[in-house]
Amino acid sequence: MVTCLLCKKDKVKFIAPLKEKYDWLVYPEEVNIYDCENCDTRFIDPLLNIDYNFIYEKTGIYYNEFERVRRLKLQEDPSWDILSRGHPYYGVFDFIKGKKNLEILDIGCGYGGLVFVLNIMGHKAIGLEVSRQAVYFAAGLFGDNYFQLDIDSFIEQNPDKKYDLLISIEVIEHLNNPMDFVKKCISCLKDNGSLLITTPNKDYNQISESRKQYQSDWIMDKPPVHLAIYGKKAMEYIASETKTKVSYTDFPGLAEITGPLNLVAIFQKDAI
What we know:
Blueprint: E1 12-17, E2 32-36, E3 42-45, H1 52-58, H2 63-70, H3 78-83, H4 87-96, E4 103-107, H5 113-120, E5 124-128, H6 132-142, E6 146-147, H7 151-157, E7 163-169, H8 178-187, E8 189-200, E9 228-229, H9 232-242, E10 245-248, H10 255-258, E11 262-268
Parallel strand pairs: 4-5, 4-7, 5-6, 7-8
Antiparallel strand pairs: 1-2, 2-3, 3-9, 8-11, 10-11
């Protein structure tokens, strides 16, 4: 029986076989795409596991990010470079605007650019990343604010540490147990702390002829790099299950009509 990756309900609808695949990975004979009729999550079944050390070291998926982060220290105001990367980073800077001296944990920090910029801005930020190569690079360039840990290992080593803000940029779509991940993130928040999650937006409406690649059954990175696609209904489900209040970053311009390509959801602890 096929059950939803997020809510674990079996009320799912078959969409299509997975057609777009990476040529460096051997897939099972049949992988299908489903929509959950309970929380509207789009996901694949069966789930496929992947080693992110392999992804960072042996594929070119994150090469452009590597090149951009490497240049950050050369810039007079690197926050502008981070902002230029689109909706996820705009959402972070919009949220922290006017706030000072936040203790921040960036989960899935990649090559560490955002943590670097947040510390320059006067916050106290550290980053977690499962890839040893990404952590090695970040620590070598930006200092020792980076740790090769997942959220489980971090909590085990720091059971009493709490943060004002947890950031998880484009991570949840990679995970095979997203609800457990969110609950553990929220357990790391101070009272009235916030968890900011960004993810490719299932509610994005394609209207531009120049971006037809987003009209397919799957947007952004192909499985198993991404395992699911979430929209606001999924975020509302997460909020109900974690007893948090969720809000969203608003974006100007075309995104007001289409919805942003990347959804930015902010979950506030102890808000309801």
